[in-house]
Amino acid sequence: MSLNADNTSTSTRTRKATTSQRKEHSDITNVICNDLDAAAKFILENSFAILRVNDETHKALTNSWIAAKYFLTSKVDQSPRQEATTKSKYRRIRNGALMGYNRPSETKVLFRSMFVNGEPDPAQPWGDDEAFKVSSSLLGQHLHSILLGCLEEMMKLVKERNHTEVKGRQPDRHASAKKKRKLDHSNSINGLDFDFDSTPCPLDYFLYHNQSDGVNCSEHVDRGVLICISLTNVAGLEVFSNDAEDGNWSCPEHIFINEQLYQEREVGCSNMLCILSGDQLKKVLQGDDNMTTQFRGLNACIHRVKRKLSAARLSISYELRASVRENEKK
Ligand SMILES: [Fe+2]
Questions:
Q1: What's the CA-to-centroid distance between 249 and ligand 1, angstroms?
Q2: How far, in Å, is the centroid of ligand 1 from the Cα of 105?
Q3: Could you read off the pLDDT of 77-109 as tens digits, one per residue?
Q4: pTM for the complete prediction?
Q5: C-alpha 276 – ligand 1 centre gap (Å)
Q6: How far apart are CA 124 and CA 126, in angstroms?
Q7: Which residues on adjacent β-strands are paired with residue 318?
Q8: Is 43 part of any domain?
Q9: CA–centroid distance, residue 199 to ligand 1 (Å)
Q10: Distance between CA atoms of 113 and 125, rounded to whole angstroms?
Q11: Any idea what the CATH number is for the domain that residue 268 is in?
């Protein structure tokens, strides 16, 4: 498998986009945006949004994508003995958490780097390529800051909406005071209940090598508050949107692939992130059943990776996680 294996047939592949893919693509364009306040709005409505990042973040994504692909591709066909050597060199377990290289299933290899407040964990093992460490460190900062910013915008929207509702309904004094306390409490993401500053957050590189018929990644929700996944030139990620009666699956990567019809790109990493609601979001925004009726996107986004890929796919994801401060929990 060469570094550019994904790119050689991109144009041919994308020109064969089916009608159903085009329909799906047109549905999902409703959630593409360039700024965090729009992303926040889409996530609250749909549990996911597609954010176009700026050139600086795109550069960090691209550099990390190239370095990770180079590293992981060389590990796909290892013998058991080579695999053992790789694990001893590039894998570490700290506080029960695995960092570095792993082969979580027959369909993929993984490199996990852990970040605390956007900075890499000093104990993190890296590949021999210094560029991998440098580009990942920068990328972790970018993605951490994007997700925190997005969460702040979501908090503002939830607060505004609830204030409007309270004003409009003129509820009794007791209920209003109760709601106000709750909103004031949720105003700060670095506030009393949740700790974002010292909770380890994973920046993952998954290489789905496309050499096995197994399931790439079955449907699931991610741990964390918000998760971002880079969109690549191999359609693999599928997100479940519950805006229709019975819901439907969409593939955000078709957007990037469609754009490639008009311009050739050198690497398969786009300037787009799919941001998803994680399983901690509702808790962090202190959402109850009422709030999830109003903001369906507070429920964690169900997603999966297609079983059949057209080529190997390297995906980058960052999970913004929080932990509850037990001593101050209400
Ligand atoms: Fe996931």
A1: 15
A2: 14
A3: 999 999 999 999 999 998 888 999 999 999 999
A4: 0.82
A5: 9
A6: 6
A7: 203, 228
A8: yes
A9: 19
A10: 8
A11: 2.60.120.620
